[in-house]
């Protein structure tokens, strides 16, 4: 992820990494996905990381397909390097996507005002367990 590119207007508001494994022809598609993600008001981080993740997955699939085809002839060291780099990019994008989704979930919980309060009603749970045990006893004859 050495290659830094600006997302431009509508982007996430700063630079982001376009991995070297993304072919030059696909960079425009990645930039367009970033612009679309920046326009999404409430899930821009999730949409951005999701589009980046799927871009990396496509790169990884392409690299592994090339390696499988190369097994019949000879395994190119450069293809192996690209595949390892793509796998690393996918892992990093997955972590980033999970972090963004966690942020969105936390924001939703904060906006909901603590619905449920996060407390367990142990008395109600005890009553429910007792009710279910009574049903099982009646059904089992014991």
Structural class, judged by helices and strands? mainly alpha
The largest beta-sheet arranges its strands as 1-2
State the shape.
elongated
Q: Note poorly predicted spans.
A: 1-15
Q: Name the helicity range.
A: over 70%
Q: What's the helix count?
A: 4
Rg, Å, rounded: 24 Å
Count of all domains: 1
SSE order, as H and E?
Answer: EEHHHH
Quote the distance from N terminus to C terminus.
66 Å
Major sheet: size, sense and barrel closure? 2 strands, antiparallel
Q: How many β-strand runs?
A: 2
Estimate the strand proportion. Answer: under 5%
Question: Oligomerization state of this entry?
Answer: single chain
Protein name: Permease
Question: Short description, anyone?
Answer:
It comes from Paracoccus zhejiangensis. This is Permease. The chain has 4 helices and 2 strands; from the N terminus they run ββαααα.
Task: Give the key terms.
mainly alpha, two-stranded antiparallel ribbon, 2 strands, elongated
Explain the overall architecture.
The chain is mainly alpha-helical and 142 residues long. It has one domain (4-140). The chain is 70% helix and 4% strand. It contains four helices and two strands; from the N terminus they run E-E-H-H-H-H. A two-stranded antiparallel ribbon has the order 1-2. A hairpin with an 8-residue loop joins strand 1 and strand 2. Helix 1 packs antiparallel against helix 2 (44-72) and helix 2 (44-72) packs antiparallel against helix 3. The chain starts with a strand and ends with a helix. The relative contact order is 0.10. Mean pLDDT is 71; it is low at 1-15.
């Amino acid at each position: 992820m050495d290659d830094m590119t600006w997302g431009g207007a509508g982007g996430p508001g700063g630079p982001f990494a376009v991995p070297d494994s993304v072919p030059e022809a696909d960079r425009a598609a990645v930039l367009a996905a970033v612009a679309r993600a920046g326009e999404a008001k409430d899930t821009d981080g999730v949409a951005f990381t999701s589009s980046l993740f799927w871009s990396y997955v496509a790169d990884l699939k392409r690299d592994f397909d090339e390696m499988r085809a190369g097994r019949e002839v000879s395994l190119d060291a450069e293809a192996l390097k690209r595949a390892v780099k793509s796998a690393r990019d996918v892992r990093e994008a997955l972590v980033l996507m999970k972090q963004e989704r966690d942020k969105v979930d936390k924001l939703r919980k904060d906006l909901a005002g603590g619905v449920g309060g996060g407390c367990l009603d142990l008395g109600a749970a005890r009553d429910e367990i007792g009710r279910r045990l009574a049903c099982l006893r009646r059904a089992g004859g014991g």
